[in-house]
Each structure stands twice: as structure tokens, then as C-alpha cells.
Amino acid sequence: MKHKIGFMGLGIMGTPMAANLLKAGYPVMVYNRSPEKAAPLVQQGAGLASHPKALARATDVVIAMVTGPEALGDLLWGPDGAGGALSHSKVFINMSSVSPSYTRELARELEPTGVTFIDAPVSGTKKPAEDGSLIILAGGPQDKVAELSPVLLAMGKKVVYCGAAGQGSMMKMCINLLVGLMMEGFAEVLNLAKLGGLSQEAMLDTVFSGPLNCGMFQVKAANLQNNTYPPAFPLKHFTKDAKFIVDTAFELGAPVPVAHTILQLYRTGVAQGWGDEDVSAIAKVLEHLNPKA
Amino acid sequence: MKHKIGFMGLGIMGTPMAANLLKAGYPVMVYNRSPEKAAPLVQQGAGLASHPKALARATDVVIAMVTGPEALGDLLWGPDGAGGALSHSKVFINMSSVSPSYTRELARELEPTGVTFIDAPVSGTKKPAEDGSLIILAGGPQDKVAELSPVLLAMGKKVVYCGAAGQGSMMKMCINLLVGLMMEGFAEVLNLAKLGGLSQEAMLDTVFSGPLNCGMFQVKAANLQNNTYPPAFPLKHFTKDAKFIVDTAFELGAPVPVAHTILQLYRTGVAQGWGDEDVSAIAKVLEHLNPKA
Amino acid sequence: MKHKIGFMGLGIMGTPMAANLLKAGYPVMVYNRSPEKAAPLVQQGAGLASHPKALARATDVVIAMVTGPEALGDLLWGPDGAGGALSHSKVFINMSSVSPSYTRELARELEPTGVTFIDAPVSGTKKPAEDGSLIILAGGPQDKVAELSPVLLAMGKKVVYCGAAGQGSMMKMCINLLVGLMMEGFAEVLNLAKLGGLSQEAMLDTVFSGPLNCGMFQVKAANLQNNTYPPAFPLKHFTKDAKFIVDTAFELGAPVPVAHTILQLYRTGVAQGWGDEDVSAIAKVLEHLNPKA
Amino acid sequence: MKHKIGFMGLGIMGTPMAANLLKAGYPVMVYNRSPEKAAPLVQQGAGLASHPKALARATDVVIAMVTGPEALGDLLWGPDGAGGALSHSKVFINMSSVSPSYTRELARELEPTGVTFIDAPVSGTKKPAEDGSLIILAGGPQDKVAELSPVLLAMGKKVVYCGAAGQGSMMKMCINLLVGLMMEGFAEVLNLAKLGGLSQEAMLDTVFSGPLNCGMFQVKAANLQNNTYPPAFPLKHFTKDAKFIVDTAFELGAPVPVAHTILQLYRTGVAQGWGDEDVSAIAKVLEHLNPKA
Predict the structure, then answer these.
(1) Alpha carbon of A40: minimum distance to chain C alpha carbons (Å)
(2) What would the pLDDT profile of A62-114 be if each residue is shown by its tens digit?
(3) Nearest-by-Cβ selection for D253 from B256, B257, B267
(4) DSSP-H helix ranges across A96-162
(5) Per the CATH hierarchy, to which homologous superfamily does domain C171-288 belong?
(6) Which H or E run includes A203?
(7) Based on C-alpha coordinates, what's the Rg of chain D?
(8) What ipTM was estimated for this complex?
(9) Residue B141: its H or E element
(10) Is D267 part of the contact surface with chain B (CB cutoff 8 Å)?
(11) Does C200 touch chain A (CB under 8 A)?
(12) What is the pTM assigned to this prediction?
């Protein structure tokens, strides 16, 4: 018997993720604040709930994929919120990106309902969501995560078990920090190489031929070459995440000297008005400091 | 007609590189300060020169792969040095790692001889030297680099043309900087993740499954997991390179805020006595700053 | 007619400040959670209130000098709190160190009472509190600050008007940041000088003879010379303030590259277990990174 | 019997320093590459040498105050250089700002002449040179420094003995580093305060009233207020010194995390075209990173 899935949040990520659940044969009921976004999924066979509570009542596994804490709070605890229909026989999986501390707070709020709570943010953006190749970073009871792995693997290629609820988010933050560190490093070296008279083509050719080659550099190189930064992961979102992770490191007493250095560089990028461009626009911050011609 | 190759410097890198030239069918004459190191190559068919000048007289293309400027200076301009036998009908290729400024100085010193000078440091260490999969970063006259590509490709899998003599070294320095930035970033994030309660296995699993995965992380992860750092690229050598590249950036006026930050971290590693361990021992510098238990 | 003053919080700072108000001829009523601390002031002529509300009822100008937001919240809004007795005919002056954002929140909470609210944290510690030589950093309505200046100048040598309520705290945070930057700079240079073979005496003699000489260096030099750091301003308190100011700078988008750098150094000091020593123990963080002998 | 003084280098600093020697009653002979600059001193009673060698022959104590190593090398070892006339009965005092390593090299070069060599750079610029209130940072044999103190004190208010020849320069570099750290800190805090809504007047008033008040802040505040930076100590000169001191720290293994951070900020200032403005123009680097209006 397949789980009945309730899916809330039909944005750029949520829509293909719900579609992949349908393709895998799960019965899926969806909810979105703007119901017109649900139409394509309804055509593919999804049911449509009139409000989150109705969705939670009618399904076993309730998944949320929304923009942040406020939207999530509304879905759960607003009028006709899903929270009122969660119970110990159900599972609630939050796949939205939120902080570990918010996740732990959420776990406490959900406790009285008896629901099994799993936090499962994803590594990957639009394309992997469509391809079902997301990496799913799961926190919560290990047996429940294992039991629900087939559901998760309908949306992603891998589930990494990270520990108690909140640790999925912690993992996501760590990965995002590494994204920002490597992106800045890539931009810093390319900018230096250019000022040192090397062609960007030769530089990229060298990086791509050796042990530093990675998927992210492959994807972002064109932005740096064309000096245009269409937003896949907006610089301001990364900056918010980086602030969060630096704050977390501060609480832990973890030494993060480079995270501090890049945080102020990315923040400068936002201050200069480039927050809506891609995270790779950190290159513009460095160029802003280049010698005047 | 294949070029007659003279190869000077039979260390960890030079020996397999010369062997690969022999395998590719080139006539090779070798020279090494300690002549006993030449024995295996002589068995494979190489000729043995009694001094650098003899080697340079007897060959068309003279290659040097030694530890640095001093050793190179001795080979070229010491008693019976190769310099005295170089002429406009010959090619001299320096594959040793030296700075761009030293390379440009060398180019000026060689100019009166009329020799064609190519600087061609390599990206890759022992294993790629043995496999013939080095990346060769070549600076010098573009037509000559093209003409000599078959020789270079006997030792490597790719030749990247970088510009005038000195730019091969510049490229190498840029790549090394990226190595150091990424290595520190990897160590910083893994250390933070551990203090934040994530298992190193889960963290590595996540990195290796996504777009940040790269060959270097694959190779160095075991060091971080086992907390042992057998030297592939010694931390003190990287630190010397990093100092050089930061100095170069200073001259160029290139903004390298993170290079500055990591330079002092790596220097601290040397000061703490870890210079002979692998560059990945930067992890120990961060642990040294971790909260006392 | 002199204002009737109510003074809450009789710690290291509050006791001498209240005593200076008495000396200046003001009628003073005091309150402290542990009433035994009030005895010396009662001997000097102060009245003793049994709870904050009684104090606020009986006086015109209510001053608080406590350890932070929690203590302040209790005094104002706890059982028999002063908040219930504040009205538009009275003035409330918070001299405790709290953040600008907390101060603005406090201003909103107090608004319904109609009380005039002034935030007036101080620059200076125990000795200036005793001598009446504090610098008072005042935020609030400018005319009211002017009117109350005689009261403030009974406790300090100068009142700096900083703007609306909250700006006194903002000023305090900025001054504390400068303290931390200069203290780290002083320690960094002295440590370098020592490693470079200069005697600490000669170094200090030079600093003290020139345009960099300042009161803080004079006071802290002995700590660095003796390598003992008795807490005047504990390192952990500075670290908390520095985190706050870096967070504020982040919100404002203000570039604070050095504040970021020192924040992680001071945080490392706390992580190493030196948080209860003086802020000048930042010298120990640098020594921890010195070359192993 | 007063020493006969030879003074080479009559720039902004040298001219008033030589004048002060004359005022103190010393017989002074001067030399300058452009002899017209010597006219005012000749009017005050100085002798004029036609070349450095003549000057060194005719005097006991030869002082140099020139722009750097090249000028100094010319004076000593160029045609008719002073070097040829130095001997064990004479003293050579270099007061020009040069590096400790250059100074040690100079000491080795002078050794064969038998001359007593003292390095004595100064802390202070034009005004203190005129007032005779320079701080003189002396390295060399301690007894000779003591013997020559009256000569030095004719030009300054204090002589700090720093150790062997080279340590005077080391001290100067350390003091300059502290100048740069404090100047950046002052600018960083003032910029933050302004973005946080504090008036610059209130901020300065607070700094000047407390234990952070120092002569340098007093002198530089007007630059920051008026946003004009007339060069007293040009930003590019400080940047050169800072590079030197960071290099020295690197050699020593001394941890200088903030020096690294500020070095790249000052270097950015030069790259932006502000190198000829005063060191306090570091404020412009921070403003360049401020949020776009």
C-alpha cells in the first residue's frame, strides 16, 4: 500500500517534486495559496485541497515546500491550518529551507500533535528537482526516515541521514557555506588571473582538466565569462544563509575565519545592489575593488 | 624525425616523465647531480651525460625538472652548465616550479644564447607524472609550443597555452592558490559540521553526491577523517607558493581578501610545526582554535 | 527645586553613581533586589523603596543601572514593577548597557505610559563611576536631555547627545568596537615586536611618547607585560558586544572588515577558556598562534 | 668639544632637522643633490659640501635623511660617495626610513670602513621635525647611542634605544603598523556610526572625551569630517611599509591577522587611485563599499 501524500507549496521546486511523486505512482493531494498553480498537477492526476487542514486530514504524509518560516507557520497554524489535523498516525516532512534553530522550535510546536516530524531540506535547485536528482538531507527518527525513503527517493537520487530533526537543516547550511567559499575562491582566482594577463579560457581549461574540477564551477563559469549573473541561487539568499551559519559557528565557538571574510564580501554585494543576481556575482564585488584603469 | 631530448633532474617527478618520453619513442639523454638515480632510465635506453653542457650539446630539446631557482641556476650557469651550449637551433623547456618573475628573469638571461625558451610547469604530482596525465601549463612563443606539443603530450594529457614565457608559472600559481582556498574551505566546513553534531561520513556523502564534488576532495577526505596528513603537497610548500601569489596580487593591485586570510592560517600551520605534513593539515590549524573540551 | 531621583540597581556602577547624586544634593530613593546592598546609601541619606513601583511612585526621575535586558524587564514589568507607576509627568532614564534594538523596543513598550524615556549608557567603568567622571551617551528628546543634564552631570563629566532613544546605545556599541579594535591592534603589534627582538619596554616607551598614546594603552600595558589579565572589562562581555555590533553593521550594510576579523579572534579567546579574563587577554589568542619554540 | 656634523638630504624633514642642529650650536656641513635647497641653511651658518665624500671627510658624525635605499646607496657608494671617507673614528647615522633587512645589509657593507653605524629612523613628520619633538628610534652599539644622544636630542624630544643596528627600523615598522591599524579602526567605526545615524561630531566628542583619545585621532579627525585628505603620511607610503611589516611577520611566523586584513584594504586604496592622499584616506576605501544610496 503506497502512502497517501499531501503536498503544500507549488513553486519552482514544489511543482516538479509533486509531479515526480505522481509519476512514481503515489496518490497525491496538493494545496497552494494561489490555487491556479495547482492546475497542471490536477491534470496529471493530483487531488486539490481547499485548505491545508483538509489536505492533512485526507493524507498520511504531509510535505511542505515553501519559501520560509512565515509561509510555513501560516500553513500549519493559520486559519484551517494543517497543524490541527496532524496526529500520531501521520508524518510531516518539511522540505523548505529554514534554520536548524527554527526547525528545533517547530519540532517542539508539533510535539503535542504526536505527528512524526522529519526535516528534509534539499541540495539542488530547479533542474535537479525536475530530474528527480535532488540530494535530500534528512533529520528525524532514523527508522522513520528509512521507512519513508521510497517517498523521498521519488523526488531525489539520494537521502543522507543527518541525525535528529534540525540536523537536515544544519547539513544544508554547511553545504551552502561550502558553496559560498568555493564560489568566492573561484571568482578571486579568476579575477587575479585576468589581472595577471592570463586568458579566462586558459584558466578555465586548466581548472576543468584537473582535480579541482566540479559541477558548480562548470555551471557558473559562463556567468563569469559573460559577466552576467542570471539568478539560480540569488546572492542575497546566500548572504542570508551565510549570516545564519556564521551566527551558528559563533554560538558553537567554531573557528570560521574565511566564512567571516566572505560574509562581509557577499554583504557588500547586496549593499552595492547586486542581491538579486546570482551568487556568482560575488565576482562583481572583487571587480569593484580592482585597480582603476 | 623525432627531437633528441635532454632531460635534467631525475627526482620523484622527473624520473617518470623521462621514462614516458622513452616510452613514446624519443631518444633521451639524462643528467642528474647524483648519477646513481639515472640507472633505471639508462636500463630503459636513455643515454647518460656527464654534465649539463654535454647533455645540451648532444640534444635539441633540453628539459629541466628540478627543485627550484638555485638548482636550475647551477644546471644552466654553473661549471659545465647547459647555458653555454644553448643556441638558436635549440629549445629549452623549464618544467620546474618557479615564480613568474624568476621565469621572466631567466628569459632575459637566456636571450643572448638565441635559444627558444618555454616555461612549462605542471599541474599534478607523482601519480599523474607516472600515468602521463599531467596538465602542462605552457608559456612562450605560441608556434613553438604547438610544434613541441607532441613532446609535452608524451608526459601529460593536456597542454594549456598560457601566453608569453612566465605565464605558465603564473597559471601554476593561480591554480595552487585555488587548491589552498578550496582545501581550507573544505576543512573549515568539515570542522564546523563536526562541532555542529554532524557525522563526517554524512557530510562527505553529501559533498560527494553534489555539484561541489571534485577530485581533490575525494583524495584528501581520508586525511581529514583519519587525522593523519602524509605529505603529497607539503603544507610548507603551499605556504611558500601562497606567499608568492599574494605578493604578485599585491604588485598587481588585485583584491585577494581570502588569499590574505588563508595565507596567515597556513603560515600559522608552519609555525606550529606542521609544515612537513600535507597541505590538508590546514585542518589542524582550525582544530587548534576549537573550543577547549 | 531639585528633581526627586529614584535609582534602581546598586551594583559596582550603580552604588557610586547613586552616591554622587546624593553628594550633589539630590533627594534619592533607591531599590535593589538584594536590599542589603542599599545600606551604605541609606546611611548617606537615601530613602529605601520596598519595590520598584513604590520607588517610581515616590520620585520624578527613575534611573535604572542593571546588568541587562532581563533584569531591566523584571524591574519594569514584573510584580510591583516600576512600569505601572510611570506617567507623562515623570522621566525614565536607562543607563544599563543594552542594545539599540532592545532600547527601541523598550521605547515602544513605555509609550503608553506617557513617560519621557531617555537612554543613557555610560562610557567608563568602576573608577570613573566613583570619581563622577563617566561620559554619558544620551538618546531621547533633546530638550529633555538638556533639562536633565544637571542630574546626569552629577554622575559624569560630560553628556554627549546622540539622537533619538536608542542612539545612546548605538554610540556605546561603536565606542566598544573601537576599544576592541585598538586593543587587538596593540596586542598584535606588541606580539610582533617581541618576536622581532624588540623589548616590550622600548616598544611601550615609543608608543607612549607619540601620537598613538592613549589612556587605554596606558592602563592595559601592565597586563600585557605581566601576562596577567585581571578583568576590568571581561573578554566575554566584549565578545558579546562585538557580535552585536557586527550584526548591526550587517543589517546596515556597513563594511566592517576588521570588526569581522577581530570578532572571530575574540570568540576564539572565549572558546579557549579565557572569557572571564580582561579584554586585553586577546594577547593570549595571538600567543596561542605563535611559533612553537 | 661639540661634534662636527655632516648632514645629507635637505627635504621636508632634513632641512628643519639640520636647522635644529645649528640652533643647538653644532657646526654643521650640509649636502643635497639639488644644492639650491641648501641656501637657507647656509644663511643660518651651515657649510656646504660639493659632494658627499667631501662632507664625510670634513666631519665626525655623518647623518643621512633621504627618501630610501636608492638615494642612500648613491650618497654612500656613488661617485664621490661618502662611503669612501668613512673610517673607525667617525659615526654614520642613517635617519632615513628603510627596512630592517636593508639596514642589516647596510651594516655589513659599512663594516670594512670601521665606521660606527647607528640606525635612527624617526617617529613624527614635518611639524615635530620643525619643533625638535621627534621620537628617535635608535639601533646600534648602546654606548655609542648614549654618547651621541645630545646630537639626537637636538632634533628630537626622546631617544628610544631599540637594540642592534636594524632594530631602530624594526621599531619604526611596528609603530607604523599600529598607525595603520588604529587609523583603519577609527575610520571603520566612524563610517559605521554615520550609517547608524550618529552625527560625526557626537562620535568624535565621545572618543575625544575618553580613554581612546590620542594625538593621531585629534589630528586626522578633520580629514574624515571634511572628506579631504591632504597628505601628511601618504597612503601609498604606508601601504609600502605595511607590506614590508607583513612580510617580516611572515618570516618570523608572527600571527598578524588584522595586519593582513588592513594590508589588502590599503592596497585597494592605492589601486583606486588614492595613494597620494593621506593615510587617513582609508576612509574612502570603506565608503567605496558602503551601500548604494
Answers:
(1) 40
(2) 999 998 899 999 999 999 999 999 999 999 999 998 988 899 999 999 999 99
(3) B267
(4) 100-110, 126-131, 142-153
(5) N-(1-d-carboxylethyl)-l-norvaline Dehydrogenase; domain 2 (1.10.1040.10)
(6) helix A200-209
(7) 21
(8) 0.93
(9) none
(10) yes
(11) no
(12) 0.93
